[in-house]
Specification:
By secondary structure, this protein is α/β, with parallel strands linked by helices. About 35% of the residues lie in helices and about 15% in strands. α1 packs across α6 (about 240-255), α3 packs parallel to α4 (about 100-110) and α6 (about 240-255) packs across α7. The structure holds pyridoxal-5'-phosphate. Pyridoxal-5'-phosphate (PLP) binds near residues 147, 151 and 173.
Length: about 350
């Protein structure tokens, strides 16, 4: 067996221990005589799995009792519609557009009401986070929307925007559980799990209870109402059962690693190794304004497309995979999520140093 160092932006690397445990339980989950994949989602055994996953997530993120945790399907992208359908009571929302995912959410919201772009960093290829301390928040905005970590561009909000009292909604797909978070600052926190938590197919929505109402936009399908899922503890219909089971294992792994503060320290240490190298390198350079750099996604370029392609090719051959950057940024991107070990980043930097020397 040869595991590579997988720098994919998503679906992405998962802790090896979790995969091994899932493999061990594949044919017979703890004496049940079946795989979790084959199990009724109404069984006592499965009920324990989903309840324990929720309890562990609540503990990790210190989620207050007045927030619901929903395990849903449809990916993060389905939330681009579900959020306005459920939250746009006044049919007005303010969007801060810091990348492609925020832009897609902003465009989707326009199908349902008046979505205002109140700030953007598109003028410089989304390479920074705009100043959000005093934005023209709409008087009647139902919420203010951000994408907290911009997976493609490698930027992260280091301070949350001043929403002037309006509900904050955040897509945290690519920074979920990467550091401690104050849930009370948000109305809704959501993310697809395939970046930092588990297999594609699950999206987790953490939502304040007062935002869950019957009062949704006309025509909102039953499956797209938060209330139906909240009232049924995410078991209104068959949930993505196996995916939730793996997420639960990752929550336990993070707890064992010391929780979110320990994750943050681990992630800062990894990111520093790579950013320090980029700052001193004569060949490679980071593409993001320093103060806005993400701990999770690190884009970089050589400034020469042919050399970028050569680097990606040689890196892949050496066991460092999925380093090709997004087509809108070019160059490279190393996604260094929770499960990427420090050695992976150290060895990548060692490889980059060698490449630099050979191509000077
Ligand atoms: C990957 C990603 C998405 C899209 O997720 P899907 O589950 O494929 O819909 C949305 N937002 C962010 C920040 C992402 O990284």
């Amino acid at each position: 067996m040869a595991r590579v160092y997988n720098f994919s932006a998503g679906p992405a690397v998962l802790p090896e221990e979790v995969l091994q445990e899932a493999a061990d339980e594949m044919l017979d989950y703890r004496g049940s005589g079946m795989s979790v994949m084959e199990m009724s989602h109404r069984s006592k055994t499965y009920d324990n799995i989903i309840k324990e996953a929720e309890a562990d997530l609540r503990e990790l993120m210190n989620i207050p009792d007045n927030y619901k945790v929903l395990f849903l399907q449809g990916g993060a992208s389905q939330q681009f519609a579900m959020i306005p359908m459920n939250l746009m009571k006044n049919k007005v929302a303010d969007y801060i557009v810091t990348g492609q995912w925020a832009k897609k959410a902003y465009q989707e919201a326009q199908l349902y009401g008046k979505a205002n772009k109140i700030a953007s960093s598109e003028d410089q290829t989304f390479s920074y986070i705009p100043d959000c301390s005093d934005l023209p928040i709409s008087e009647d905005a139902d919420y203010v929307y951000i994408c907290e970590n911009n997976t493609i561009y490698g930027t992260k909000f280091k301070t949350l925007p001043n929403t002037k009292g309006k509900t904050l909604v955040a897509d945290v797909s690519s920074c979920f559980l990467s550091e401690p978070v104050d849930v009370t600052k948000y109305g809704v926190i959501y993310g697809g799990v395939q970046k930092n938590i588990g297999p594609a197919g699950v999206v987790i929505v953490i939502i304040r209870e007062d935002l869950i109402t019957e009062d949704v936009l006309p025509g909102t399908p039953t499956m797209l109402r938060y209330k139906i899922h909240a009232d049924n503890d995410s078991l209104y219909n068959t949930p993505p059962a196996y995916g939730i089971y793996i997420c639960g294992k990752v929550f336990k792994w993070i707890k064992k690693m010391g929780g979110l503060q320990a994750m943050k320290e681990h992630n800062e240490k990894k990111a520093k190794i790579l950013y320090d190298f980029l700052d001193e390198s004569k060949l490679f350079k980071g593409t993001v304004r320093k103060e806005d750099r993400s701990l999770m996604n690190v884009p970089f370029v050589t400034g020469n497309e042919e050399l970028d392609a050569k680097f990606v090719k040689e890196a892949t051959a050496a066991g460092f995979t999925n380093l090709k950057g997004h087509r809108t940024v070019g160059g490279m991107r190393a996604s260094i999520y929770n499960a990427m070990p420090i050695e992976g980043v150290e060895k990548l930097v060692e490889f980059m140093r060698k490449f630099e020397a050979e191509n000077a």
